[in-house]
Design brief:
Length: 97
């Protein structure tokens, strides 16, 4: 793994990436909040924190609309399948005893 990618991975949380993944699918902080059972303000703050950690914008914000930036689209493209894979792996683990 490249050093820059490694340091970026260490600077972001799994929760922030999950929040971004959901928001990128819906292109709505309100819809993402509903799926995640949090407030739209919490989604917005989580995205802003992730953008600050990465040092780039992931969404263009308009009145009542969102659009992914090129960087956001690149990140979103593979995050969904990555989370699905993690969920598949976790579902194969034996239940807690």
């Amino acid at each position: 793994m490249r050093e820059t990618a490694k340091s970026r991975l260490q600077s972001v949380s799994l929760g922030a990436l999950r929040t971004f993944e959901v928001a990128s699918r819906h292109l709505s902080f309100k819809a993402a909040a509903g799926e995640l059972s949090v407030t739209p303000a919490a989604v917005s703050q989580g995205i802003r924190t992730l953008e600050n950690q990465l040092g780039l914008l992931l969404f263009e914000r308009f009145n009542r609309a969102l659009r992914l930036t090129d960087a956001g689209a690149l990140l979103a493209r593979d995050l969904g399948p990555a989370f699905e894979r993690i969920e598949d792996i976790l579902s194969q683990l034996p239940p807690r005893s």
